[in-house]
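Hey Z.,

So I finally got round to the 2'-monophosphoadenosine-5'-diphosphate thing we talked about over coffee. Here's the setup:
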Amino acid sequence: MFDQLKNSTRTNIICIFGHPIQHSMSPIMHNVAFKDLGLDYVYIAIDIAPNNLKQAFDVVRALDIKGANITVPHKETTLKYVDEISPLARRIGAINTIKNENGRLIGRNTDASGAKKALKEANININGKNIMIIGAGGAARALAHSFIEEVNNLVIINRTSDRGKTLATELTKVYHKEVLYKKFDNKIFEEMLPSIDILVNTTTIGMFPNILLSPIPKNYLHEDLTVFDIIYNPLETQLMKYASEKGCRVLGGLDMLIYQGISSFEWWTNKTPNIELMKRSVLNEFVVK
Ligand code: ATR
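And the result:
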């Protein structure tokens, strides 16, 4: 990675904070794009446990780190530690990108537009559809807020009731449209999935290294369902495998990763990266060497 550094006294540092972080492909795709454009930037993944997050942002200021991506499980807590929050990120209640402008940390959310662009490119239309989102963390917030105005019905499923209820209540209030919350339970999937058009998994169930797990058993899926799993490592999750076997339309998280990453990259550098190159760099990582 470091072979691209041009001037070690001026190199701009970008990082990603997550816990865990070993699944992340963001360093690969951003470093490839920095190098391609001849930018003196480096992108580093850092594992930060939740109780060290505040100190991590102090370090960002102290070291003049130019920007960061924020991932599981810090997207919501980060709101407390930045100096300015974009209106969209504030409405969503989650930040996935930070820019350091002369010591002021500004937070934005690029997950929402990244997910919508990925769906659009895959010709998946959410308009008038019945949607089920599993999870109520930062990613679920971004997707729910960006979908709600277009869909027919939205139901949030979550393991922790408080978090799920809070999100559903908030959406209902902000958009004047009733959003249901149901507790994560196989009985709920059995009951509700027959009337769902698009199922979105935003939980980490099935993410590397736990690749054999699926949030939903295969027998509750049906062929009229579109399944969007925002996990990109592995490229095909167990849920996606089950969905394909059942004849569902299936979309994984790679394109959302790329599109949210492009928005962040453009914000940090004011340059447009080569999307195909970024995508190829991630795909190459999955080729068995
Ligand atoms: P992000 O901000 O990227 O969305 P997150 O805030 O950690 O990440 O959210 C992860 C989601 O996955 C949460 O909805 C979490 O459920 P809880 O709110 O109950 O924690 C869900 N999740 C993770 N592991 C899970 C598991 N084993 N079973 C059910 N839900 C799980």
